[in-house]
Amino acid sequence: MSTVVSTPNFELILINISGKDHSGVTSSLTEILARYGASILDIGQADIHHTLSLGILFKTDSSQSGNIMKELLFKASELNVSIRFTPVSVEDYDNWVSRQGKNRWNVTILGHHISADHIAKVTTVIFDQGLNIDSIQRLTGRMPLNGDKQPLAQSCIDFSVRGNPADHDEMQARFMQIVAECHIDISLQEDNMYRRNRRLICFDMDSTLIETEVIDELAIRAGVGDKVKAITERAMRGEIDFTESFKERVALLEGLDEGVMKEIAENLPITRGVERLMSTLKMMGFKTAILSGGFTYFGNYLKHKFGFDYVYANELEIKDGKLTGRYVGEVVDGRRKAELLRLLAQVENINIAQTIAVGDGANDLPMLATAGLGIAFHAKPKVAEAASQSISTIGIDGVLYFLGFKDSYLDNPKA
Questions:
Q1: Among 206, 216, 360, 364, which one carries the catalytic annotation?
Q2: DSSP letter string over 150-203?
Q3: 3-class secondary-structure state, position 403
Q4: I need a surface site. Which of 67, 161, 178, 336 has the fewest CB within 10 A?
């Protein structure tokens, strides 16, 4: 008894077009497909240095495929671009469709300069974990030829990958090894519904938004700089309890004139990228907060300067124009920062997965762990080790790249 094998009366064809980019290429080719009633199953385009790379996968009646390919070939010649046809089997197509249910991830590389070696190392890890790269895009602006010699240069490349890592922890560990060896930053994030729908971002202040610890600045004016700085460093490394260290340091400020705070505030060294970061976040409708183990006076100064929505920090007690060496209310320590993050998410009716936290010290770790995205910024070793994401090579506006923003949109919002 013979078996009849039915063959489909349609064909699946992938066309790849490459050549000098100019207007009208995509519209001219898709007009031909439309004229023959072809269905476009997938399409993708990239432009690298005015060179076009366009791919279209379409389905058409077998009786029409020859005419379609002939017209596309003539049109490609007329447009002065190359075209290649590849038949796709139903089995291959079904296998491709079945992969769409797999998880998606974003692997983001940040640094002053990203080399071929950096990309090779990162993509090797992606391959070893059984993931497939769907797309690659540069998020930063076009790099000048001497870009790697400019101290303020920054570069970011984002990989969209699909699949489930064979060993997520091992993947993260290998990325951290590359970070240590190559002096770049690597972020691994699941590309879920929350990644580009963040709505609340909370910052530590000292050594995050500003490049100093304000309590150290106050201590210098009080003549106890070395004593306070030594305690601060031990607390930020997690060697001593933050609240206890806070009490010790504040006590050493007794008798300092409150007018000193105004002078310090007006000369705060603002971290590179804060202004760009804040203007973008406000433009995009984010709620922003300062959750600081520092002092409200300086937090409020930054609030008015950059437009933060909330400030929670510690209040110094002042009597007769002098600091008493005491504070008012509950200390904003690591536990309190995490509580405030949750509280603000509730107040703003935001899922905790839509929140971001950025900080540098050990007392920021609970906040970083609580947020949907926790980023250690130029952090102490213990913090960078514990945080799932970190930025140590460029300014704080690097946070925007972890959210998927591109320079072309940030610097030209109407483009």
A1: 206
A2: -TT--EEEEEEEES--S-HHHHHHHHHHHHHHHT-EEEEEE--TTTT---EEEE
A3: coil
A4: 67
3-class DSSP string for 261-329: HHHHHCCCCECCCHHHHHHHHHHCCCEEEEEEEEEHHHHHHHHHHHCCCEEEEEEEEEECCEEEEEEEC
Residue 240, helix vs strand vs coil: coil
Tokens matching residue 337: 């920062």
Reply yes or no on whether 204 is catalytic.
Answer: yes
Exactly one of 185, 204, 333, 360 is catalytic; name it.
204
Question: Would residue 407 show up in a list of annotated catalytic residues for this protein?
Answer: no
Q: Rounded to whole angstroms, how far apart are CA atoms 205 and 213?
A: 9
pLDDT at 385: 81
End-to-end CA distance of the chain: 66
Name the residue with higher pLDDT: 101 or 138: 138
Over the stretch 255-299, which tens digit does the pLDDT of each residue have?
Answer: 999 999 999 999 999 999 999 999 999 999 999 999 999 999 999
